[in-house]
């Protein structure tokens, strides 16, 4: 059973303890409280303000596991705090696994300060967990995919549309990178892992992947520049910087351009592009919660 009073008290305490600077928000002169406002937390959690207010009062329906996961991420909770949130809400805490989708507070703090830069958090299977607005403008909402299609590796070898963002002349090299990256995940996780199931599926569905897989390609530490084709602003040559969180097997990927180049100018224009209505960087905000 959910302890609604404890849930409300915990959410209020975490909201009041979280400072605007920690999530990339300006403090402003008119802020009367030291923590965040309810509407700010609701936006961070990708839930409606009314729904979040109900959680703090407490009233309304018991939050689902998906809502709790989004709330834990929005409030920058540690894994221990996330587990506590699930328990007082009447759910079993998610199993502690090395390759979980929970993003560490440290990575989230960095991402909060990169809103005008294409950046996203991905796990070792190429599944995008969180994107900045500029990353959505560059690549589309990669968090919206379901099932095997959550993996960029799977989409690359099974969905031709996923390749349109790169020049065709670069596809062969990018295929080698994708195969090598997945080979690293498979080697680390073993034959009974999600990585192994993804490899088995791709070997059956993609002759190109199967041919590359048998070469046992190894990905080096250097992340070369990549060329992108954007339908509105044209070509960009971007450098990829990666910050790895080994505990969660996640990586923060940041795309930058050399100052003074045409790509740098186009990259600045990217942050000004409107995002299609209904596009979100984590949970679809059109859902009823």
Short description:
This protein is an alpha+beta fold and 289 residues long. Helix content is 41%, strand content 11%.
Task: Describe the 3D structure.
The protein has 289 residues and is α+β, with helices and mostly antiparallel strands. The chain folds into two domains: 4-88, lambda repressor-like DNA-binding domains (434 Repressor (Amino-terminal Domain)); 105-270, 2-Layer Sandwich (Beta-Lactamase). It contains twelve helices and five strands. It has helices at residues 4-17, 38-45, 49-56, 65-74, 79-88, 105-112, 133-139, 152-158, 171-189, 194-205, 207-213, 262-270; strands spanning 119-123, 128-131, 226-230, 234-245, 250-256. It has a five-stranded antiparallel β-sheet. Helix 4 (65-74) runs antiparallel to helix 5 (79-88) and helix 8 packs across helix 9. 30% of the residues are buried.
CATH architecture of the largest domain: 2-Layer Sandwich
CATH topology group of the largest domain: Beta-Lactamase
End-to-end distance, in Å? 20 Å
Q: Which sequence of strands runs across the widest sheet?
A: 2-1-5-4-3
SSE run:
HHHHHHEEHHHHHEEEH
Q: Radius of gyration, Cα only, in angstroms?
A: 20 Å
**Overall residue-averaged pLDDT value:** 86
CATH class of the largest domain: Alpha Beta
């Amino acid at each position: 059973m959910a302890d609604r009073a404890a849930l409300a008290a915990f959410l209020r305490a975490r909201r009041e303890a979280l400072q605007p600077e920690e999530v990339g928000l300006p403090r402003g002169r008119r802020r009367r409280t030291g923590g965040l406002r309810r509407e700010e937390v609701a936006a961070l959690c990708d839930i409606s303000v009314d729904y979040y207010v109900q959680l703090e009062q407490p009233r309304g329906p018991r939050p689902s596991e998906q809502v709790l996961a989004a709330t834990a991420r929005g409030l920058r909770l540690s894994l221990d705090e996330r587990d506590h949130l699930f328990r007082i809400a009447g759910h079993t805490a998610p199993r502690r696994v090395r390759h979980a989708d929970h993003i560490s507070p440290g990575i989230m703090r960095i991402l909060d300060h990169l809103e005008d830069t294409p950046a996203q958090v991905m796990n070792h299977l190429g599944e995008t967990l969180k994107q900045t607005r500029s990353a959505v403008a560059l690549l589309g909402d990669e968090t919206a995919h379901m099932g095997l299609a959550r993996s960029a590796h799977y989409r690359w070898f099974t969905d031709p549309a996923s390749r349109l963002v790169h020049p065709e002349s670069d596809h062969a090299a990018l295929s080698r990178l994708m195969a090598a990256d997945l080979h690293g995940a498979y080697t680390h996780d073993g034959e009974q892992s999600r990585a192994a199931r993804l490899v088995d599926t791709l070997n059956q569905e993609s002759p190109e992947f199967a041919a590359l897989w048998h070469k046992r390609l190894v990905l080096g530490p250097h992340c070369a520049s990549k060329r992108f084709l954007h339908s509105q602003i044209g070509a960009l040559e971007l450098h990829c910087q990666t910050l790895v969180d080994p505990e969660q097997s996640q990586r923060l990927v940041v795309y930058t351009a050399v100052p003074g180049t045409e790509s740098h100018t186009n990259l600045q224009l990217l942050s000004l592009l409107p995002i299609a209505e209904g596009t979100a960087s984590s949970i679809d905000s059109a859902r009823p919660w």
